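Deliverable D5.2: sample structural annotation.
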Amino acid sequence: MESSWRPAPTIRLGKWRIPALLVAGGVAFTSLLVPVGVLTTWSIQAVLDPETLRSVLHSGSMGFSNFAWNSLWTSFLAALLAITLSVPVALFSVRHPSRISRFIARVCQVGYAIPGVVIALSLVLLVNRALPFLYATPLIVVIAYVLRHVPQAVRASEAALNQVSPTLEEAARVSGRTPVQAFVQVTFPLILPGLLAGGALVFLTSLKELPATLLLRPAGFDTLAVRVWVWASDGFYVQAAPAALFLVLISAVPLSFLLRREQIFK
């Protein structure tokens, strides 16, 4: 089974190769190496100072491991829910194009244009009136992440489905498969890399989401992004550095998957 995807052609730069490398290297140096270098230096200072290290590992009633765990499980659950919700929307939009399907797909993009503060305030009003049992729970934070970042999952799912020819599903139907069986056995394995890429994007953006988390988190529920903001706003940059560096390291895992997914699923 093959999809309609084809690799992009290689363009030879010739004499512009060195200038292009310098420009790309300059961007990488200023945007990645300098910030990571500063964070690493401050993190080493925090580790070498026992008092600072103690305040980083045990802040209030929670510790660094709690902040990291809160960030990981909320972001992972948001990514899983976003991908699950994006598949039927993408199927309807790509396989059954119409005004209604296009409208639904566009509505799903609204969340990315709305600030996290607005989404958080809207959820507070909605949950207080309709679903009070969700208020001041971590689940409302996850819901905010999903609403905020589901456009990334929808776009990834649509792109993956556009690369799979409908004739493959038709061939499965002709051979006696039901629509569900055709999707599970034929389409889903082909779009899985795209779905995982969309999930990785949602995971990355949820990790660093701050406004919605600040407004919706229950008392005592802090993520790494929240703790970095708290420490930095108080002027404790050395204390904030280990958490910020850990966020960078966590983000490197799904980012490496995004960059290598073609080789992984080759």
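Annotation notes: The CA atoms of residues 100 and 250 lie 39 Å apart. The mean pLDDT is 86.
The annotation will be released with the project's public dataset once the embargo ends.
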